Structure formats: structure tokens, C-alpha cells
Amino acid sequence: MNISKLLTYSYIFFLSTFLIACSEKTITAEVEQPYHLLAQVIDVKPQESYAIERAYTGQVSIRDVSKLGFEFNGLINNVFVDNGDHVTQGQVLAEQSTELLTIKMQELQAQIEQVNAKLSLNTHNLKRITKLEKKGYSSQQALDNLTAEKEALIANLQGLKANVNSLKYQLEHTKIIAPFDGVIDARNATQGEVVAAGMPVLQLIQQGDKQVTFGLPAKLADSIRLNQVLSVTINNKDHSAKVIAIGKQVNPANRTIEVRLALDLDKAVDVFNGQLAQVLIPQKINRQGTWIPISALTDGIRGQWNIYTVNNIEQNLYKVTVKTVKVLQTNKEYAYIELTENTPLKIISEGVHRFVGGQTVRIGTNQSSKPANPTNQGEQL
After folding, report:
1. Three-state DSSP class for residue 223
2. Cβ neighbours of 47 (radius 10 Å)
């Protein structure tokens, strides 16, 4: 019995010793193989320049803004439109009273009839005197007097007819007629007012021919060309516009050149005269560097920016190196950094807070890719 217990105890001791030894070997194996973080890496290659879009503030303008008034003095009889009304070409917008002109026309017609009567009498007298003069019963003086009188009556009749034509012209121009389709922007007079000739009664803005005018710095005048299509933002909506005029005179106040754009008429452009617009001008900056994700940047000392590059030290293991860079341009997702060397780099693209210089890391076999060259907007830093 004692021998059986002794064998049992020996077996238990041997088994425990074996398990402890196995555990120590496993722990030792794990310690001998250190863990390396997996880094998300992209390949970047330097480029010679980058493109940006700078925004310039302009103003929407309508090419045809007409101040409409009457050609002659007179009393306004009716104004048929008001502010904001849409009108069509040929529509009557306002009219003057024609009562006085009608009375003058009647007076002229009476004078014409009177002259015609005198002219008829003169013609009969002239015929009789001519017959008597041939027979020697009348003097040449009487014939000359009647001839001169006839010429005077004819001239007077022509003058009266000219006055009639003048009155007809005034009668035809007692109405303000819309010269084109548009919207009434201002109404400066109303029924019953007596207005002077040429006084603006209505202001009409043409619809459909909208332009954007803005000032471009003279040094950038060569960056655009006629008929070039630019992007314009009005009231948070994007539109396309074509360059139709580039000025040749520098504005002494702001040292810019006036540029005019025509908004795309094939699309419905609901804008107002005088509304602000932002014009995006593409610009090429000749500076060697590359685009990297914003997530690849980390804070450096004294306000500088750092990136982490990796270099292969052995199979599938890389060493992290800290590199200070200068950021030239940013947008919401990418930053353009200055690079002086011409060789491609592998940089850590995200999770940079997990790494330090000199650290050994792993990279996945499918983690290396080149970022797309972004369409960029932003302020130059």
C-alpha cells in the first residue's frame, strides 16, 4: 500500500514538472519573437508643379438695362405695369394723354383747309389775269403778284403739313413700348404726373443675357483666354460661364483688369442683377512636391509639419524615419508638400500617432498605392 501511494505521488510530481517545463518554453518562444505594428503605407513620387483654383469675387450684371421715358413732355394717362412685372417685347407699358395733341391736330387741319381755299382762289385769279394780260387788259405786275402769292400759299401749306407730321409723330410716341422681354425693375412715376421729355419713368432689365464681371490681378491676366469656360458660384450654386472680354486697362483703385463672363444660356440661371458671384480661376504653381493625405501629417516642433517614411531593413520589416516637410497647399483631404529629392518615397498614410522615429514596423503586401492627384482648392500656406 505504501509502495502504491509512492508511485502515485511520483507520477503526479513528474507530470507537474513536465507541464511547467512546457509552459516556460512557450513563454520563452513568445518573448523571443517581438510584435511589430502594421503600417498603412503609400508610394509617392515628386512632381514638378501643382494646380489650384483661386476664387475671385465678381458681380452679376445684365447687359441691357433700359431706363424708359417719354420722348416729349406731357401728362401721364396710364401706367400699366409695376415693379417685378414680366413684360414682352412690343407690350405697351405706359401712355400719355393725347387730348392736347388732338386739339392741335384739329387746328392744323383747319389752317390747311383755309390755305387750300386761298390757293384755289389764287389759281382761278391767276388764270383770268393770264388771259387778260395776253389781250393787253392787265399789267404784268398783277400777274407777278398772283404768282408770288401762289408760291407763298404753297410754302405755307407745306409747313402746315410738316407740322401735322410732327404731331402724328408725337401721337405715335405717347406710349412707352417694351423694347425687349424683361422685368420691370423700377417705376418712378404714376398716373396724373406731368413728366419732362426723357425723364425715366420705368427701368426694364432684360432676361436671358446675364454676365459676371470681376477684377483679375494684372499678373494673372495671361492665365485665362477668350472663350475659356470657368466655374462660377452664385448663391451656393455652381454654373459655367464663358470668357467674352478681357480688359486692357488696369483699374487704378484696385490694380485689377476687368473680365466679363457670359453665363451658360442653355441652363436655367436664376440670378439677380448686382448679385455677388465667385469665379474660380485655375492656376499652375511650379513647385516640386507631391500630394499626400492630410492624415499622413503630424505636428512637429516649432509649428512645423512631419511625415513618417519607411525604409526596408529586412524581409517585410521597415524602419520609421521622421521627415520635416513644408506644406504648400491644402484642401479638405490632401496636402501638397515640398520635396527636394527626386526619388519616390514610402510614407505612412494614416494612424501616424502610433509611430515614432526609429521604430520597426511591418507593411501589408497590398498597402502600397499612389494617391490620386486631387482637384484642389484652398489657400496657399
Report:
1. helix
2. 14
CATH number of the domain located at residue range(s) 65-97+174-206 in this protein: 2.40.50.100
Closest by Cα among 247, 329, 226, 241 to 284: 329
Q: Are 348 and 296 in contact (CB under 8 A)?
A: yes
CA 127/CA 122 separation, integer angstroms: 9
Grid cell locating 132: 387778260
- Predicted TM-score (pTM) of the model is 0.55
Question: Span 54-63+209-285: which CATH code?
Answer: 2.40.30.170
Chain-centroid distance of CA 153 in Å reads: 66
Nearest to 367 by CA among 354, 351, 356, 343: 351
Which residues contact residue 108 at a Cβ distance below 8 angstroms, ignoring those fewer than 6 apart? 160, 163, 164, 167
Note whether 213 and 61 are within 8 A (CB).
Answer: yes
Question: Please, what are the averages of pLDDT over each run of 10 residues along the chain (381 residues)?
Answer: 60 63 50 76 89 88 84 91 90 92 91 89 79 67 77 89 90 90 87 90 81 89 88 88 90 89 70 87 88 91 90 88 91 88 87 90 61 47 32
